[in-house]
Amino acid sequence: MSPRPFPNGVYCPLTTPFKAQTEEVDYDALKTQVVRLAKARCGIVLLGTNGEASHLSDTERTSIITAARTALTAANFPDTALLVGTGTGSARETVKLCNEAKAAGADYAIVIPPGYFAFAIGKNREALKSYFWEVLDKSEVPVMIYNFPGASAGIDLDSDILVELSEHQNCFGAKLTCGGIGKGHRLSIHTQSAEYKKRHPTPFIVMPGFSDILLPSMIALSSGCITGTGNIIPKTIVKLYDVAEEALRTGSLEKLREAQALQEIVSLADWAIVKAGIGGTKYALDTYVQAGLGGVPRSPLPIAGQEIHALLARDLVRAVEFEKSLP
């Protein structure tokens, strides 16, 4: 069966809510957040960095995917795609997680370079290509490459290797949490060419991992963004995408200026969430969205302290107020 479509737009890597004291997964909160994001027309990413995937057992991974799919179907969003993080230390285990994710209800996988042995493979292009090629060959779901040096011990895939990987028929995109707009532009130029489309009929998605560069990235041919700030202000970021897309499609200077104003709101909020981290994002969910929605991180990640509380109260409230003004 073909995966559900993966349209351009805004996607959110959900936090995984854990209950205080026990640190068990709060499936009710997870389901509420999944449906809330779907209603905001925000795409769903599970078990990524924000989702603390490295803190989860294989059984919990499967249960989270199943719970999300069940919630979406029950809320009349059966066609919403699930992009699921499956990257781990070896190609063999990553393939296993990709295929288990499919069985649980995932449509796509997102795979980060294996950072534990970065000292051995980080500068070895052939080893990195071999890892991804094996995963792409054997995964039963299409794979997005996840370039995040901060979470992979500094491994930073350049546009040359991303272009090479994009040629695999099972590679459908790249998430660039390296902030490289130029890198994304070069990859988009390659994958949006008529010659590439003849070889690779499936559309290729290029997305930054931050929403503070959504507008400039779209100008540089990106397909949208995948942003943790979507946990807090999904409707605002979706509106920014919609207005920017209209400005680029129609050439409207008025819409471009509207997009610039929205980007200002989003950029300030995105930087606040980046500084607040996962613990701060969960605190913001509980404080500014709905009590009980965020929960706590699993040890050793810290909960948000007073300094983070103050930072969010100062730098996030404007965006939260705008979010609440949207239908």
Automatic annotation (TrEMBL):
One of its GO terms (molecular function) is 4-hydroxy-tetrahydrodipicolinate synthase activity. The active site is at residues 146, 175. The keyword Lyase applies. InterPro entries: Aldolase_TIM, DapA-like. Keywords: Lyase. It comes from the Eukaryota. Pyruvate binds at residue 226. PANTHER family: 4-HYDROXY-2-OXOGLUTARATE ALDOLASE, MITOCHONDRIAL, DIHYDRODIPICOLINATE SYNTHASE. Belongs to the DapA family. This is Putative dihydrodipicolinate synthase. It comes from Pterulicium gracile.
